[in-house]
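Repro:
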Amino acid sequence: KYDVRLGAVREALSKLSAEGLVDARAQRGYTVSDVSPEDLAELTDARVRIEQECLKLAIEKGGLEWETDIVAALHRLSHTPYTMPDDPAVLDQRWVKAHREFHRALVSACDNRWLLRIRGQLYDQSERYRQLSVPLARAERDVAQEHRNIADAVIARDVARACAAIASHMWTTTQIVTTGLT
């Protein structure tokens, strides 16, 4: 039907399995990895810790170009539709891309490649939970304001405020999804 070689499919599934997005079952094939409140809590805990370390280093090392990149990424994100116009329960993929770029810009001045690599893996893992949060999100949540608060704290070089803002941002999403999963 799709004219794809079986070897290519196996290789793709192997990579997805290594990334924790699918589970290999002996003699039974592959299944999509389960989502659970416990997994999300552990993922968020790890992500917050790594993100905060990356932010601290970025704030210490970042210059004017880094600040400009953050402002530009925030501007792009704030002018990109959050959900699909015909289905408000589905994230607009342009927003997903702009969101990824904003969070990447925040830590781009971090000079520890290993921390950044781990951060990227955790970000990718959290994406499937973020997608789940959209139909569950409370109307009173102002994600755009959360992003402005994070950017303002980072550009002001206020490490404590930046770390608190990023942690709050991530744990809010976790709470929304956890409530929806239970």
